[in-house]
Amino acid sequence: MVDRPEMKDSKTSITTLQAVACRVVRAVLALFNRVANFLGRAYSMIVLLVLWELIALFINNPLFLPRLSEVLETIWTSLANGELVTDIGASMFRCLAGFTLALLIGTPLGILMGWSPKWDNFWNFIISFTNPIPKLGLIPLFILWLGIGEASKIAVILAGAMFPILINTYNGVKGVNKFWIWRAATVGTNQVEMLRKVILNAALPHVLTGARLGMAVAWIVLLGAEMVAAQTGLGFRILYGQQTFDTRLVFSGLLTIAVIGFTFDRLIVALSSRMCRWYFSREDEPGAAQ
Amino acid sequence: MRTLEVSSRPVIRAREVGKAFSSRGQTVQVLENLNLDIRQGEFLSLLGPSGCGKSTFLYIVGGLVPLSSGELLMENVPIRGPSRDRGIVFQEPALFPWLSVADNVAFGLKLHVAGRRGLAGITASVRELLQLVGLEGFERFRPDELSGGMKQRVSIAACLATDPKVLLMDEPFGALDAQTRGVMQRELLRLHETSGRTTLFVTHDIREAILLSDRVAVMSARPGTVKEIIDIELPRPRWRHRQEDNPDFLRLERYFNELLEHDIREVMTYAPE
User: Fold this and answer.
1) Measured by CB atoms within 10 angstroms of the end CB, which terminus of chain B is less buried, N or C?
2) Residue A180 and residue B94: Cβ atoms within 8 Å?
3) CATH value of A68-284 in 3.40.50.300, 1.10.3720.10, 3.30.160.620, 3.20.170.40
4) One pLDDT digit (tens) per residue for chain A, 290 residues
5) Domain regions of chain A by residue span
6) Of the candidates A180, A189, A279, which has its C-beta nearest B111's C-beta?
């Protein structure tokens, strides 16, 4: 580097105050940018919600379609009196418990099946046979087996969320670049290191894609389970609304699920692009991809 | 600089090596009766038209593909699988995209040496290796932030990290543009001429083979076999000066061209089923 005196001069002339101001302006601009970016993608949602309010106002039949503002009011009051908090808590617990189990079983099984022909041969037909069974159809069976409590609900979610995770992981492992495996093999990697250090990392984007799909299935199955047999939870809340002809209650449950589902989905997306930047940021930089 | 001594003792010895693949009920004989010795300390190129099985032979030497017939020994022991003794640089730099440049180079080291040498030792070796391939300061970069030439330098560094006795290179510069390829060839010459590591180098580029090698084994196609081995007696070290204008170089180039032309015609008219 050439030492340029005029650069040095301009540097020393910047006061601390100016530097701080500079940073603040930059931070505000960055924030503004993010908000604008968010609004650019969220405006379609806003349009939809405004339309809802207007159409409901026009129909003027709260039993058929309550206004968004009424639904929000219901959500607010039931949040305040704790009913909704209990329901959200109950549903989230079941969902996360089942989903976590699905992840803990689906990922290793998918990896082993993708890696070892022995495991593949043993499990492949079983998976193909059980995967198409509608998981909602398992609810009565699981209630018979595990009772009406939490266990049967968690088991149904496990059954629902596991397949997308397992199948995506399996395909991810099958598609691992042969040369990565070969390169690892030539520096003396043993089987365990190969699975842990190469295969798991290489297939991780697919595991996370599976998790995203599995999370969506988990909510679908959970609601079904809660409508069949539950005294708490968002599914119960929706069913109760229908039984008492309280359409606002039905909508408040649906809206809450949509918000929670959206949040989880974005969380997984954010986690994916953070953990697998090498995979998920490729589309942003054409030419960088191999 | 270490003396460049090529002993006549073979490190790797291939006898009557054959390889057959079967696909859709048909058997394709890729290699047949291939005999080749790779001597201690030499740079041996395997030259042949695309599809002659030279990469397959390299994978067999690497222990990644099993042979169908014949015998393949390294230091008198049959090769049964991949080993740290034989490092491979592939045509596509097979770097792990989720690891930084430094972690890619350190991958092989961390597997076994971690306990004995510790992390500090590994960091130091990685810096040394990156310096060797001209990439100091790129430790924290990701593979997709590098150009094709830089990636291939990283894979060479990663391959040297485990200090293999034999270096196997499968058209490592085949995917690079002509200028970068020229620079990389000269750097490989420098690496070889300062370390004297036994190297098997697969290429279809005649000039590349002449420039780098002590001996060039010319392969014919379908089935692939070594049809002639030629000594390249251009004096070493070669990396300091241009070799391509040397009359000996040009003579060799013409000779190889004639040798290969017949085979290339044959491959081009070959219709795969």
Assistant:
1) C
2) yes
3) 1.10.3720.10
4) 444 444 444 445 567 888 888 889 999 998 998 888 888 888 888 999 999 999 999 999 989 999 999 999 999 999 999 999 999 999 999 999 999 999 999 999 999 999 999 999 999 999 999 999 999 999 999 999 999 889 999 999 999 999 999 999 999 999 999 999 999 999 888 888 899 999 999 999 999 999 999 999 999 999 999 988 888 999 999 999 999 999 999 999 999 999 999 999 999 999 999 898 888 876 544 444 33
5) 5-59, 68-284
6) A189
Question: For residue A106, which of A199, A171, A193, A168 has the smallest C-alpha distance?
Answer: A168
B87 with A187: Cβ contact below 8 A: yes
Q: Is A276 on the interface with B (CB under 8 A)?
A: yes
* Length, in residues, of chain A: 290
With CB atoms and an 8 Å threshold, state whether A278 touches B144. yes
Tell me how many residue pairs between chain A and chain B have CB atoms under 8 A apart. Answer: 70
Tell me, yes or no, if A93 comes closer than 8 A to chain B by beta carbon.
no
Q: How far apart are CA A248 and CA A66, in angstroms?
A: 6
A192 touches chain B (CB under 8 A): no
